[in-house]
Amino acid sequence: MIVLLTFALQLGAQTQAQKSSPIALQGLATNQTESVGPISAEPTDSLKRFEQMAMENHPTLNAALARILTARHEATQAGLHPNPKLGLFIDEAGNENDPGIWGAYLQRQHIRGNKLALGQEIKDREASVLEVEFEKQILKIKTDVRSAFYKSLIAHEKLTLTTQLYQAQQDAIAKSNQLFEAGETPKTDLLQTELQAQKTMILLSEIEVAKKSAWRELAASIGKPDLPPQDLTGNLNPVVDEVTYQECLSHILANSPELVAAQAEVQRIRSTVDKEVAQTIPDFQSQLTVGRDTTSNHFFTGVQLQLPLMICDRNQGNIAAAKSRLVVAQNEIERIKLSLSKRLSVEFQQYRSSLVKSEMYTSKLLPKAQQTLELLTQGYPEEVSFLQLLTAQQTVIQITLEYLDTLSLVWQSRLKIEGLLLDDALAKNTVQ
Q1: Residue 1 pLDDT greater than 60, yes or no
Q2: Cβ contacts of 421 within 8 Å, gap of 6 or more
Q3: Which pLDDT does position 95 carry in this prediction?
Q4: Does an H or E element contain 103, and which?
Q5: Are 39 and 418 in contact (CB under 8 A)?
Q6: Is residue 332 part of a domain?
């Protein structure tokens, strides 16, 4: 976990007794924890709260639910039989002042070939695809929220650290000025101290902007862009996972909603093929007529049947097109598998390389920088100049900031892999 280490910058003037007024600086280091196996980080209470807010406020989830309901309602409609038609007719009215022939008819369309059930099945399968898309959207939202959360958390740590550095450098400028006026240090040391403070001020401004940007990204990810900034709590220390690329790939291929949705789409298109084949079985129309001929004063009835002759149009074009769409959908599954493999290769490479780099910082660079600062502090002012001590201090802080940047890369790749390579929930193609 992230712990604060206090580095005391002893700024005496002449004697060892003057080392009793330290200017405290806080750096960041980590204690390595044991491996927990697969890539999976347990969200903190703070992160869970933001995830819950996203589930309640994200507009794409409401849209996805509405699309599912739309498909379900369309499935109900697709299974309904056509309504019968009732009509009236009058013929030869006015001949020899006679009302003519009049009556009523009842007409009905008879659907054959199980077309209604197949039409309903297609819409049901479409709803199933949309339900998988809904689950995929949830994963994207969680990945976005977690990614923005850790960006904001790391930006806060960097801002805290840089602010402490800047404050310490202001004290160092004052002390350096005293030493210069006392003739104990050259003016170049004073100018160098002021230069480092100015560079830190620029860095501080950049980090302040980055922190605000990270918070705005987090607020947008949860669907509340006007949410005021809040304190975040979380563990930045990455869990060292002894997991291979192949293990990650197998897990993603077995659980990816992208693949599940593509497989569900294949089943939907199979149903469309069945329906197009069923169209070769013609429907027919029946009509029952009841009327009266006022000339002869006779009542009559009639029955009509209409059946298309499937001579020219046997729906062969639509059947072939549906089968071609099925081939496209089947190959889409293979394309997604290859895409997942390629995307995982990029993310896993960044995750492992960033993790190795972060371990080098915690095991080599940070301890050595800290040890150097401690040795220089012990030798000041008899053996070490003020500027040397200040430079060592600057180095420790700079290495710590680099370490935090590396942690950010670790978390971004890790969260992408945990989210089955799904992110960017607000992208246009995910909400249409």
Answers
A1: no
A2: 252, 256, 340, 343, 344, 347
A3: 61
A4: strand 101-110
A5: yes
A6: yes
Q: Round to whole Å and give the CA distance between 101 and 418.
A: 78
Query: Which residue shows structure tokens 């600086």?
Result: 25
Does residue 89 lie within any of the structural domains? no
pLDDT digits (tens, 9 = 90+) for 293-327: 877 788 889 999 999 998 999 999 999 999 999 99
Helices vs. strands in the chain: H and E counts, helices first: 9, 6
Domain count, the chain: 1
> pLDDT tens, 368-426?
988 988 888 888 777 777 778 788 888 888 899 999 999 999 999 999 999 999 999 99
CATH code, domain carrying 177: 1.20.1600.10
Which residues are 29's β-sheet partners? 3
Q: Which of 407, 389, 363, 404 is nearest to 22 (CA)?
A: 389
85-91, strands of its sheet edge to edge: 85-91, 101-110, 284-293, 298-306
Q: Output the average pLDDT for the chain.
A: 85
Q: Which domain holds residue 62?
A: 2-32+41-79+111-280+315-430
Q: Distance between CA 317 and CA 289 in Å, rounded?
A: 37
CA atoms lying within 13 Å on the CB side of residue 104: 4
Alpha helices in 79-227 (DSSP H): 115-181, 187-221
Q: Is residue 273 part of a domain?
A: yes
> 390 lies in a domain?
yes
pTM attached to this predicted model? 0.82
User: 87: how many CB neighbours lie within 10 A of its CB?
Assistant: 11
Question: Residue 381: is the preceding peptide bond cis (ω within 30°)?
Answer: yes
Euclidean distance between CA atoms 5 and 24, whole angstroms: 10
